[in-house]
Amino acid sequence: MSSSARSAAGFRRLWSDLQDLGRDPGTGGYRRFAWSAEDAALREWFAGAVAARGLDLVVDRNGNQWAWWGDPDAAAAAGRPGVVVGSHLDSVPDGGAFDGPLGVVSALVAVEMLRESGFTPQRPIGVVNMVDEEGARFGVACAGSRLLTGVLHPDRARGLTDADGLSMATAMRSAGQDPSHLGRDSETLARIGAFVELHIEQGRLLADAEKDTPVAVGSDIWPHGRWRFDVPGEANHAGTTRLEDREDAMLGFAAAVIAARRSAKAHGCVATVGKVAVTPGGVNAIPSAVSGWLDARGADADAVRRVVAEVEEVTGEFGGRLAEESWTPTTAFDPSLVRRLATRLGGVPVIGTGAGHDAGIFANAGLRTAMLFVRNPTGVSHSPAEWATEADCAAGIDALHEVLLDLAGGVA
Ligand code: GLV
Ligand code: MN
Ligand code: MN
I need a surface site. Which of 4, 78, 283, 402 has the fewest CB within 10 A? Predict the structure, then answer.
C-alpha cells in the first residue's frame, strides 16, 4: 500500500469514530464544550486510541492529554526534548468536524504509520489533545495552553463561569479533574522541543491557489482578542412605555455593534459580535441590560486596539463599559522551523492566518512551534460547512509523517 493509501485508510478508521459524537442532529454542527459529557467521551476516545497504539498517556495539571512514544523526561534531561503533534477536540457552538479533530486524528495516524514502519525515533514523539481551545463555554480561548504557559492565572480560570453560572472549577471537578493544581507547568513544557499543529485551513488561500497544493505551512497569526461590553437600561412594559421615556439597553448595544463594523472597515481589521445576552430577555419587556462579546482581529495590533477603543467609546456614550477578556499579540512561528518544514515538504506555500491556535500561545511562550494547514474547499470554518476531502486529509497526514521523520531524527 502506498503512503497515501495507508494514511487514507488510517484516517477513515479513526474519523468514523468521531462523526456522531457531540453532533446536533438539527444543525449537523458539533457542540463539544470543555468539561462537558461530550468532552468526557472525546477524552475517553483519545485515551483508548493512544492505548491501542502503545503510547503512554499523561494528563497534565491543566487537563491537557499527552500521549508519549518514548520517555519525555529522560530525553528532556538529556537535552533532547520531544516533538509534539496534535490539536484539540472541543468545538465552537455548531462547529465543523475538522477544526481541532483533524489535527488529533492526523497525529495519531502519522505516529501509527511510523511505528508500523519500524522507525526508531531519536527523540520522544508526543500526541496531544489540548483542552478547551475554543473557549466556547467559559469565554477564554486556548485556556489549556494559556494555563500551561502561565498566561492565564489559575484563579481567574477557576472563577470563569458558563452560561448557567457554573464555574470552570466546578465543571472540572465534575469531570474528575482536580482544579486546585491549575497553572504554569514547567515539567510539561520542558518535554516539548518542538510543537507542530496540523489544522484545517480556515480560509481559501489553498483552494484558490493556482497550483494544486493540499498542504501549507503556517507563518504567523494576526493579533486578536475578545472583549465584553455591557450596556445598562431600565426594564419596562413594551406596550405602555412611551418611546421618549425608555432606557432601552438594546439601542446602545446596537450602536456598539454598528460601530465595531464601521471601525473595523476603517482600520483594515475584522470585528464580530457573535454572542449576546439580553436581560430580562422577554419579547414584551424593554431590556434592562445587554451584554455583547466583541472579537476583533487584524494584521496590525494598533489598528485592532483602535477598533476596540471606538467600540468602548460608543458603549460609554450609552452608560456602558467594555472589558478585555483575552488578548493574543502578533504571533510569528519559528522562522527556521517554518523554512525547514516548507522545504522538507517540497516547497509548499507558507501562509498566515487570522485564526487563533494553541500553537500560537506556545510560540509566544518561546517554544519552537509551527503549523500545517490542510486545504478547505469551502473556505468556511466554525460552521458545519467546514470541509476537507479525504485525499487532502491523507496528504496532510503524509506531510505530518514527513515532519516527524525529519524532526524526530530517526532512521526510517
Ligand atoms: C479559534 O478558532 C479562534 O480563532 O477563535
Ligand atoms: Mn476554531
Ligand atoms: Mn482549532
Answer: 283
Interval 253-267 mean pLDDT: 98
How far is C-alpha 169 from the geometric centre of its chain's CA atoms?
20
For ligand 1, is residue 142 a contact (CB within 6 Å)?
no
Bridge-partner residues for 275, per DSSP?
A: 293
| Cβ of 286 below 6 Å from ligand 1 | no
Q: Measuring CA to CA, which residue among 160, 163, 115, 167 is closest to residue 140?
A: 160
Residue 118 and residue 247 in one domain: no
Q: Compute the distance between CA of residue 227 and CA of residue 325 in angstroms, rounded to an integer.
A: 5
Show which of 304, 328, 352 is a domain's final residue. 328
The verdict on 281 and 162 lying in the same domain is: no
Is the CB of 96 inside a 6 Å radius of any atom of ligand 1? Answer: no
From the CA of 356, give the closest atom in ligand 1. Answer: 4
pLDDT classification of 4: cutoffs 50, 70, 90? confident
Distance (Å) from CA 282 to ligand 3 centroid: 35
State how far the Cα of 292 lies from the Cα of 29, in Å rounded to an integer.
23
| CA nearest ligand 1 atom 5, residue | 356
Same domain, 306 and 197: no
pLDDT digits (tens, 9 = 90+) for 332-365: 999 999 999 999 999 999 999 999 999 999 999 9
Whether the CB of 296 sits within 6 Å of ligand 1: no
Domain that includes residue 255, residue range:
224-328
- Do 251 and 362 lie in one domain? The reply is no
Could you give the number of structural domains in the chain? 2
Residues 334 and 257 in one domain: no
Residue 136 beta carbon below 6 angstroms from any ligand 1 atom = no
- 284/206 same-domain check: no
Under DSSP, the state recorded for 36 is: S
Give CA torsion, residues 91, 94, 99, 104, to 10 deg: 50
- 3-state class of 369 per DSSP? strand
- 255/138 same-domain check: no
Tell how far the Cα of 355 is from the centroid of ligand 2, in angstroms. Answer: 7
Domain identity same for 313 and 336: no
pLDDT, tens digit, 9 for 90 and up, residues 29-63: 999 999 999 999 999 999 999 999 999 999 999 99
Closest atom of ligand 1 to 357 CA is 1
Q: Report, as an integer, the average pLDDT of 226-254.
A: 98
